[in-house]
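Appendix C reproduces, verbatim, an entry submitted by the partner laboratory led by Prof. M.T., so that reviewers can inspect both the input and the predicted structure.
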Amino acid sequence: EITGAVALAQLDKLDASVNARMARAAELCEALKDIDGLSLPTPGAGRRHTYWRFCLDVCAEKIPGGTDALGDALRKHGIGCAPRYIQKPAFRCQVFRDQRTFGSSRYPFSLARPEAVSYVDANFAGTLEGLARVLVLPWNEKFTPSDIDFIAEVTRQAVADLQS
């Protein structure tokens, strides 16, 4: 009950929080839009991105070292970030990889065609390639324009250093 009461009280803050996140994200996108090798989040037409996280798509062909090198450079300046969004996709988790089930039923894996429950990396090449390109910045509605300026300045310098 207490959790529900707290959640209900927090709903009054939701619109302001989302609007602040969106405003800061627009500022960062504007500041980084011309960096060769970075693609920025772009909501589709008629869509609204709430920016729970701010994801950069880093092209390793244009930014040597890709997400790992850029992430290392940002962290040296106190900007927390995480390459790959998640460290282990679900299909690499033991329950899927080994198709662990209760008893010997193999349920629910037994319901599918064998090729549908093959969790080898080759079946998820697009997922792995996409994750390799993503650098996730933490995002917060309390960020100020000066926070955004700092993130943008450090990112610009880090990319320039990696490209030189």
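The longest strand covers residues 53-58. Additional entries are available on request from the coordinating office.
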